[in-house]
């Protein structure tokens, strides 16, 4: 059977869904508090702006 883009795409799509199923089974989603969620969003925003912090300052918080 020749390999076509259509068959390749179908196989990759199947594999992707299987990997996602395995990931969700082996690595359950962690529940986080509202405070942790706010902190994560704050960190993401800081990373977008390229701000740099000294490790000692971060660990002191």
Structural description of this entry:
This protein has about 60 residues and is an all-alpha fold. The chain has one domain. The chain is about 70% helix and about 0% strand. It has 3 helices and no strands. The protein has helices at about 5-25, 35-50, 55-60. The longest helix is centred in the N-terminal third of the chain and has 22 residues, at about 5-25. It is elongated and about 60 Å long. The mean pLDDT is about 85.
Quick gist of this model?
Helix content is 72%, strand content 0%. The chain has one domain (5-60).
Question: How are the SSEs placed, and which strands pair?
Answer:
Elements: H1 5-26, H2 34-49, H3 55-60
């Amino acid at each position: 059977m020749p390999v076509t883009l259509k068959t390749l795409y179908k196989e990759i799509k199947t594999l992707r869904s299987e990997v996602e199923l395995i990931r969700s089974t082996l690595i359950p989603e962690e529940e986080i508090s509202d405070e942790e969620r706010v902190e994560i969003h704050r960190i993401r925003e800081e990373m977008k702006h390229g701000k740099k912090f000294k490790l000692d300052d971060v660990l002191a918080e």
